[in-house]
Specification:
With 422 residues, the chain is an alpha+beta fold. The protein is built from nine helices and six strands; from the N terminus they run αβααββααβααββαα. It has one domain (2-413): Outer membrane efflux proteins (OEP), CATH 1.20.1600.10. It is elongated, with a radius of gyration of 37 Å.
């Protein structure tokens, strides 16, 4: 029996003495700075913004003068053996004068699409921030949990020593000793489990940072909320400033401009055209040129009903986007209401858990002294010890839950990695 007890003590000492492997240490601000540059979701959102800007430039180019240069050289011959060289050149220009505001409406729609892409970037930034904060908090919790489980294992080890002495002195039974040994075995398991969880949390944070290589990481921080507001803000105003809602609003405006552009399909198109050039059967002309200038008018008469169908389709898109905007407002409002409640609940829960922890520490201190002096039974003492262990874990969980709830509240407001809405 003594050899078994000694083995447990050796294992316990190894667990307590085994330090966490050192790794790269990061603060929250360092994580934010790195993620802004490295995260692929932000790169994707920025690429979509660049595409929207390029599309606008393509559409807006139709409002500018269009120039084209043509050069031709052709040799002609006949069966009689004669041949001639015909060369020509021309420079043509075309300027749109009127198309029923079709192009200008398309440009306005593209401007709204750019705004929507900018708001999409903000929404992606908010989602990336929440994922980063969640991973940061998970690693912070895992680090603290490893320390806590080691502390618990050390406490269980001391309990085994105490009960062993009492058992050897005939003041405790074998059942109590076996219970203490089982509690120590459970504590050892939880230390190993916490260390495996630490590795998982390190991997998750590396991915949230946008890193391709996953290594040892540590984070610096505390379970303390940064948003200390207790008065409920105007949720309607927060929804209107949320990038997700602003994106929906920009898409609705773009759809209306697209409808205006589609209606212009029935309008005439007027162009100012001009050209200058020359052709010669034998040589390139350098002395005389031909030129022309005039107006070109195109009036659509009948397209088989396709124009009306395109207008009906564009109008349906406007209705669709308007409905999505209204639905999005309601969903975001509900999300803000829920996240505000969860954040306030989590903050108060931390305060309550702290009181329970303080009480459990006092009770455990008193109970240990009473048990050593034989004033309380083993069962009563074990219950108080188990309560201390669970209370410490609950306090740690409450702190982590508060940081996650705060991160969700910030995301619901539209807060991203740029720090807005925090």
């Amino acid at each position: 029996m003594k050899s078994k007890i000694n083995l447990l003590l050796v294992v316990s000492v190894f667990i307590v003495a085994s330090p966490l492997r050192a790794g790269e240490s990061l603060s929250w601000q360092q994580c934010v700075t790195e993620t802004r540059v490295a995260h692929p979701d932000l790169s994707l959102a920025f690429a979509l913004l660049q595409q929207a800007e390029a599309t606008k430039n393509v559409t807006g180019g139709s409002l500018l003068p269009q120039f084209s240069l043509g050069l031709n050289s052709l040799k002609r011959g006949s069966s009689s053996g004669g041949s001639s060289l015909v060369s020509s050149y021309s420079l043509s220009a075309q300027q749109l004068l009127y198309d029923g505001h079709k192009t200008s409406s398309a440009v306005a729609s593209n401007n709204e699409a750019i705004m929507a892409a900018q708001y999409n970037y903000g929404a992606v930034s908010a989602a990336v921030r929440f994922a980063l904060k969640s991973s940061f908090t998970a690693l912070l919790k895992a680090q603290n949990l490893v320390g806590l489980t080691i502390e618990i294992a050390e406490r269980r080890q001391k309990n085994v020593r105490l009960i062993t002495l009492r058992y050897q002195g005939g003041r405790e039974n074998i059942g109590s000793l076996r219970q203490a040994e089982a509690d120590l075995a459970q504590a050892e398991f939880e230390v190993a489990q916490a260390k495996r969880g630490l590795v998982l949390a390190q991997t998750a944070l590396a991915s949230a940072l946008g890193r391709d290589v996953h290594g040892l990481l540590r984070v610096q921080g505390a379970f303390k909320a940064g948003d200390l507001s207790v008065e409920k803000p105007d949720l309607g105003l927060l929804v209107n400033s949320n990038p997700q809602f602003q994106q929906l609003n920009a898409r609705t405006k773009a759809a209306r401009y697209d409808l205006d552009a589609t209606k212009s399909v029935f309008s005439p198109q007027l162009y100012l055209t001009s050209s200058v050039g020359r052709s010669s059967p034998d040589r390139w002309p350098v002395d005389a040129v031909d030129w022309s200038a005039g107006l070109s008018l195109s009036i659509p008469i009948y397209e088989g009903g396709s124009g009306g169908a395109r207008v009906a389709s564009a109008r349906a898109v406007v209705d669709q986007q308007s409905a999505q905007e209204r639905s999005g407002f309601l969903q975001l409002f509900d999300a803000l209401e829920q996240s505000w409640k969860s954040f306030q609940d989590a903050r108060q829960a931390v305060v309550v858990r702290k009181k329970f922890l303080d009480a459990a520490i006092e009770r455990a201190t008193i109970a240990s002294a009473q048990y050593s002096n034989g004033l309380i039974s083993f069962n009563d003492w074990v219950m108080i010890e188990d309560n201390l262990v669970s209370t410490k874990k609950e306090y740690l969980n409450a702190g982590a839950d508060m940081l996650i709830a705060e991160a969700l509240w910030i995301q619901s407001k539209g807060g991203g990695l740029d720090g807005k809405q925090e």
